[in-house]
Amino acid sequence: NSTATIPVCHRENSLLFLLLMLGTLWLATTLYNFNQTPYLQASKREMMADYALPVAVITFSFIGSYLFSEVSLDQFNAREVDQVFHLPDPSNFSLKVVLAGMMLGFPLSL
Predict the structure, then answer these.
(1) How far apart are alpha carbons 82 and 67 in whole angstroms?
(2) Are 55 and 15 within 8 A, CB to CB?
(3) Model confidence at 3: pLDDT above 80
(4) H/E/C letters for each residue in the chain?
(5) Interhelix angle for 42-50 vs 11-33, to 10°?
(6) Neighbour-count burial of 49, counting CB atoms closer than 10 A to its CB (0-12 exposed, 13-18 middle, 19+ buried)
């Protein structure tokens, strides 16, 4: 019988995660909706709308890492796995399986 330790939840961590999440959402939405303003040229507005999410994520990752470096966060421990994906032998596939995979994959490509 092993007892698991329950991690302690700190208020500053929760508030930091909430602030970063809502700030990322706000910045991404603002940059995405910048396409509807009369500022800048149309190509630059469209580029801002296209890259709104990566810019917002990188910006708030920087804010979380450098401006809030005093907040102590727990490290995420991931265990190493030798092979994550195991590729099956294609000669074992039936024609039905191949066609089903193609039918499921086609809508994803649209």
Answers:
(1) 36
(2) no
(3) no
(4) CCCCCCCCCCHHHHHHHHHHHHHHHHHHHHHHHHHHCCCCCHHHHHHHHHCHHHHHHHHHHHHHHHHCCCCCCCCCCCCCCCCCCCCCCHHHCCHHHHHHHHHHHHHHHC
(5) 150
(6) middle
Nearest Cα residue to 7 out of 79, 72, 81: 72
Residue for token pair 């086609």: 106
Q: What pTM does this model have?
A: 0.58
CA angle 95, 98, 102 (to 5 degrees): 135
How many Cβ atoms sit within 10 Å of the Cβ of residue 56?
20
For residue 13, the model assigns a pLDDT of: 76
Two tokens, residue 41: 């040229």
